[in-house]
């Protein structure tokens, strides 16, 4: 089973994981790891290592990060670089991505990553009420 670390700035990650579990149910081998206001990238790398250790055994791991290039991304990138064949990283975390990740957690990382990128993109939509059918009177 693919282990997942949901991470980002502040309490966002705990909240999005809680929301996903309200919809999907309790997740296994999934942890929210947050970056506090006074924490560094090094602190976060240590938090990730503790989380990974607590989820053992871990054969594959995916980081779902809130923002490309931020401290949580940079810390995750350091961890992924140590085992790129079994660790992955996706930025732009949203609720559709996380719910989809929970539903396909039994699949290999190489299949999960492209699927989640598509799921996250598909979760961004616009309600256009001006495009209503002109036949309605």
From TrEMBL:
<keyword id="KW-0418">Kinase</keyword>
<dbReference type="InterPro" id="IPR033887">
    <property type="entry name" value="PTS_IIA_man"/>
</dbReference>
<dbReference type="InterPro" id="IPR013789">
    <property type="entry name" value="PTS_EIIA_man"/>
</dbReference>
<feature type="domain" description="PTS EIIA type-4">
    <location>
        <begin position="1"/>
        <end position="124"/>
    </location>
</feature>
<keyword id="KW-0598">Phosphotransferase system</keyword>
<dbReference type="GO" id="GO:0016301">
    <property type="term" value="F:kinase activity"/>
</dbReference>
<dbReference type="GO" id="GO:0016773">
    <property type="term" value="F:phosphotransferase activity, alcohol group as acceptor"/>
</dbReference>
<dbReference type="InterPro" id="IPR051471">
    <property type="entry name" value="Bacterial_PTS_sugar_comp"/>
</dbReference>
<keyword id="KW-0597">Phosphoprotein</keyword>
<protein>
    <recommendedName>
        <fullName>PTS EIIA type-4 domain-containing protein</fullName>
    </recommendedName>
</protein>
<keyword id="KW-0963">Cytoplasm</keyword>
<dbReference type="GO" id="GO:0016020">
    <property type="term" value="C:membrane"/>
</dbReference>
<keyword id="KW-0762">Sugar transport</keyword>
<dbReference type="InterPro" id="IPR036662">
    <property type="entry name" value="PTS_EIIA_man-typ_sf"/>
</dbReference>
<keyword id="KW-0808">Transferase</keyword>
<dbReference type="InterPro" id="IPR004701">
    <property type="entry name" value="PTS_EIIA_man-typ"/>
</dbReference>
<dbReference type="GO" id="GO:0005737">
    <property type="term" value="C:cytoplasm"/>
</dbReference>
<dbReference type="GO" id="GO:0009401">
    <property type="term" value="P:phosphoenolpyruvate-dependent sugar phosphotransferase system"/>
</dbReference>
<keyword id="KW-0813">Transport</keyword>
<dbReference type="Pfam" id="PF03610">
    <property type="entry name" value="EIIA-man"/>
</dbReference>
């Amino acid at each position: 089973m693919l282990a997942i670390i949901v991470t980002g700035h502040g309490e966002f990650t705990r909240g999005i994981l809680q929301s996903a579990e309200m919809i999907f149910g309790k997740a296994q081998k999934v942890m929210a790891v947050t970056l506090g206001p006074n924490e560094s990238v090094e602190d976060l790398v240590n938090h990730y290592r503790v989380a990974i250790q607590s989820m053992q055994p871990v054969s594959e791991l995916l980081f779902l990060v809130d923002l490309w290039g931020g401290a949580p991304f940079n810390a995750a990138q350091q961890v992924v670089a140590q085992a790129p064949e079994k660790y992955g990283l996706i930025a732009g975390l949203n609720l559709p991505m996380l719910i989809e990740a929970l539903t396909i957690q039994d699949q290999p990382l190489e299949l999960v990553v492209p699927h989640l990128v598509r799921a996250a993109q598909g979760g961004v939509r616009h309600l256009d009420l001006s495009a209503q059918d002109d036949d309605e009177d």
